[in-house]
Structure formats: C-alpha cells, structure tokens
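Thread: nickel (II) ion complex, take 2
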Amino acid sequence: MNNSENELKIYTYPDRVLRATAEAIENIDEDLQKLVDNMIHTMYLAPGIGLAANQVGELRRVIVFDLYPRKDGRDPRVLINPEIVLSEGKVASEESCLSVVDYSAEVSRNAQVKVKGVGRHGKPMDIEAEGLLAICLQHEIDHLNGTLYIDHISSLKRALYKKRLKKKLKEK
Ligand code: NI
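Output below.
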C-alpha cells in the first residue's frame, strides 16, 4: 500500500450503477492501473474478498479479488474482461456482497468454472476454479453484467430484504 491509493465509494443496492452492464476494456493504460490500485485498496479496507468496477461506479470490465486477505504478503488478483467459458456442477453456499448491506443468503452456483481474461498488464489468463474461487468469480462477473447475488434467491426472500431495506432507509 502507498499513499497514492484512494479509497473509492462503494455503491449499494438499489443504486442503478449496479444494474448497468460494464463495457469491455480496450486500452490497458495508466488510468486503468490507477482504478485497479484503488479498487484493491478499497476491497482490503472494506474488507471484502472481491470487488467489481460497477461497485465503485465504473462501468469497465475489471474485477479484483483475494480470497485470503492478510496484512502481510497480500496477493491481490486482477482480471480484465473476464469471461466464463465453461461451467459445471452445482453448489450452494452463503453469499454476501459489499453492495448489498446487512444481508446474506444461500445462492446456488456452478461448482466449477473456467474463466478467461487478461491480467492487469495484458497477459492472457486462464483460470480453472472450484470451491470459493469459483463462487467468487461468478459473483464478481455477475456484477459486470448488472446482476447481484440477490437476483439468484427466491422472489419471496428478495421481497423481504427489499422491505427491510426500505424501512431502514426511512429510519435514517
Ligand atoms: Ni458483490
């Protein structure tokens, strides 16, 4: 971490930016590196294990993640223009999201995915994932398509969360 990194605002549901489709990145330039650094910084501060650009109000197809955040020896991963090219199996697990405050719910996902994309310096990447990494990648790539994990739960559960959130926002 250095001082040139800035904490970004994390947009929360029901903000419309979370519903927009992010656009493919064509130029890996300084501006993008700055965004990536700031996203990593913001993810660790939150703290969270993944962050997609939509969540900080940027409609660019980039995600950052680190399943095992530590104070020392951090290993943040960056994926630009990620795309799921293969998915298999089913798994259900409890998910939460920095953009969906005070909530978590069980979500069904594919158990294994193969994701293609490029790293922050343009190196082609091919990730075969299972377990938490597979879930995290599906969750973050969903964000780039304007989808939230609460879109995968039952409409009844979602309605209850909306009601609770509305009440909470009124109380503020
Ligand atoms: Ni999320």
